[in-house]
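The step that takes the researchers longest sounds almost clerical: writing a folded protein down as plain text. The outcome of that step, for a single protein, is printed below.
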Amino acid sequence: MNIKTPAYVIEEELLEKNLKILDRVQKEAGCKILVALKGYATWATFDLLEKYLAGATASGLWEAKLAQMKPWEVHTYCPAFKEDEIDEVADISHTVVFNSFNQLERFEDRVKNKALIGLRVNPGVSSSPVPLYDPCAPYSRLGITKENFRADKLQNVSGLHFHALCEQLDSALERTLEGFEKLYGEYLKDMEWVNFGGGHHITREGYNVENLIRMIKEFKNRYPNIKDVYLEPGEAVGLNAGYLVAEVLDIIDNGMKIAILDTSAEAHMPDVLAMPYRPNVRGAGKPGEKKYTYRFGGVTCLAGDVIGDYSFDEPLKIGDKVIFEDMAIYTMVKNTAFNGIRLPSIVIKRKDGSLWTTREFHFEDFRDRLS
């Protein structure tokens, strides 16, 4: 593979495959799907996304400005908006969602004539297997709990938003939706829209798309006043549509073979350490499954910068390329320049097989973030 490493590569053909699945849900369920920029924000592919999706959802001003690059719906939610940013957020957004009644009362007069106003509520249903990614965990700061809900403050509120899932199947949404309606169903008769949030792994193998469509249609039948139902997946948009290419820089033996790569779990794929998880490597097996086993280590000075253990049919050599699968989502938006390591380039693989390097990073990018 003739790519300068490290590099993220997004394949248009695989990305469009995901988008077609999402578009099917939109058409058959009568809902709108937004790309969550916190999970997938490669704006070089926005032309393709715009053909299929209704818009984008942002987590604050800068993401909203990124979403504004296309003439689609921009929905913005933040745990707390800043005084000097709320006006610009309202100017950009189709919908602004507040996380508390404090924020609603503080800013609703500045938003109500520019954008629709929503409230994020906490459905109280924990289903995420990782507490770090559970918005319904005890003492969560995300979403208004039923105990704190103020029915007398809804004059300017046209919709409710809940988000409780993380990389989950349709069965998790069934439980969450049941909890949401149990707590907040009495308020839905006065709403114009509802947002089911993200975390729906709609494009993953084994996801029951028909069941999702059924749930949305039945929800709309129960609440005929609801004009729009939104979903805002990030991962489902870019799931398995991209990978990270790295190069073996050195191989050492400190009790086992260790291959040091020109990438990093800490800097370039931080969820490997945060969740944690072991990303799949193309052509590799589990440790001991194949003849030659290696531990992949990053090039930072962090002792724990270890990606995982992998086995191969043939021994690795310095200069070999290694491909980490499913790296178009979260990894790209969460990476850092820790230790001054070069950020991976961003490459789009066109449907005709050609490669388009949309961005390379240089020393100046690292320097200018620091002072």
About this structure: The longest strand covers residues 242-253. The two ends are 36 Å apart (CA to CA). DSSP finds twelve helices and 16 strands in the chain. The domain at 13-238 is CATH 3.20.20.10 (TIM Barrel).
